[in-house]
Write a structure and sequence with these properties.
- With 75 residues, the protein is of the alpha+beta class.
- The protein has one domain.
- A five-stranded antiparallel beta sheet has the order 1-5-4-3-2, covered by helices on one side.
- Bound molecules: zinc ion (ZN).
- Zinc ion binds next to loops.
């Protein structure tokens, strides 16, 4: 569905645009390009391909809307 690649900082400021609950998926911008970042299993970060805002925002909405709280107990 989405291709994840290791997040490699490019030396410029990483801006957080939106963060899903629990910060599972974070919509970021860097060098005027946008991507979704998430925590990788190895403790680092992974990101989707960099691109225009509309594409990254769509990916972020789709990813974060599928997010569920594993630990949350229904009351
Ligand atoms: Zn959550």
């Amino acid at each position: 569905m989405y291709r994840w690649e290791p997040h490699i900082p490019r030396g410029s400021l990483l801006c957080v645009v939106e963060s899903s609950c629990c910060e599972e998926f974070i919509l970021c911008s860097e060098d005027s390009q946008f991507f979704v970042r998430r925590r990788a299993a190895n403790g680092g970060h992974e990101q989707t391909a960099r691109g225009p805002y509309a594409r990254a925002a769509k990916a972020w909405i789709e990813l974060s809307s599928g997010h569920q709280h594993a630990a949350k107990v229904a009351s």
